[in-house]
Amino acid sequence: LMPAVRGEKMDALAMTEPGAGSDIRGMKCAAIRDGGDWIVNGTKHFISGAEHADFVIVFIATGEDQTPKGLKKRITAFLVDRDTPGFTIRDGYKSVSHRGYKNMILDFDDCRLPDAQVLGEVDGGFEVMNTWLYATRITVAAMSVGRARRAFDYALGYSAEREQFGQKIGKFQGISFQLADMITEIDAADLLTLAAADRLDKGLPSNREIASAKLYASEMLARITDAAIQIHGGMGLMDDYPLERFWRDARVERIWDGTSEIQRHIISRDLLRAMGA
Fold first, then answer.
1. 57, 178: one domain
2. Taking Cα atoms as reference points, which of 162, 11, 19, 31 lies closest to residue 89?
3. pLDDT level of residue 74 (50, 70, 90 thresholds)
């Protein structure tokens, strides 16, 4: 891990499977104990950055327990070098969003991993996963704020320059009020993100605050990029401007690292738990 921290190596992270997206416990990629090793079989997909990764942090089912709600899988995080026998990284899907990298497929075919490649504790993968998700959800929120500000800057500049019906379009109330709403939403998302990050830095319970920031900022970004294109009219859809890319890239923010629906579930669950419900 330290070479990756120092920027000497590239890593990727693999959770999602064809049949397990939001339902992480539904994963089929599994490891069976064999002496001091684990034999892994299964597939991961939508793994961004894996084409350049020197190693991948992979979450794998390592057992299951019977609970009142049914079988509950135990998850373990493994560090897997890209040249490990039985492990293959192959081309996956082309996405409308974030075309700067590929979404790869990872295949495990009787891949043998020693205990030394376990990250954290055996069956402790959810703790590792949650630590990572807290940070990445705040990162998604922060990136959404930054991208929204950039889209807004284009919209504001265009509104101050473009003339129709004998005046700058920013003088029309339909545009000026839209600009006011846009910057208010951006600033609100910014403050939500900073508040969530502050709680996380201080070690305070922050699950709901992080979910709120990720939910609001990612959905705000979609509204802002769409509004920026609308203000530009037809020119907003041309690749002469970066707005069409901002708009495309915004779409995935409501899906990865926890969908908007998962964030709403987290928020409502924590609110009801606080009421003893």
1. no
2. 11
3. very high
Closest CA to 57 of 137, 113, 19: 113
53-89 residues labelled b (16+ CB within 10 A) or e (exposed): bebbbbbbbbeeeeeeeeeebbbbbbbbebebeebeb
Say if residue 103 is in the same domain as residue 143: no
Tokens coding 248:
């495309």
- Residue 250's domain comprises 128-274
Q: If we measure between CA atoms, which residue out of 243, 159, 145 comes closest to residue 188?
A: 145
Q: Are residues 151 and 218 in the same domain?
A: yes
pTM of this structure: 0.88
Mean pLDDT of 6-28: 87
Pairing of strands 37-48, 103-114: antiparallel
What whole-number distance in Å separates Cα of residue 22 and Cα of residue 257? 9
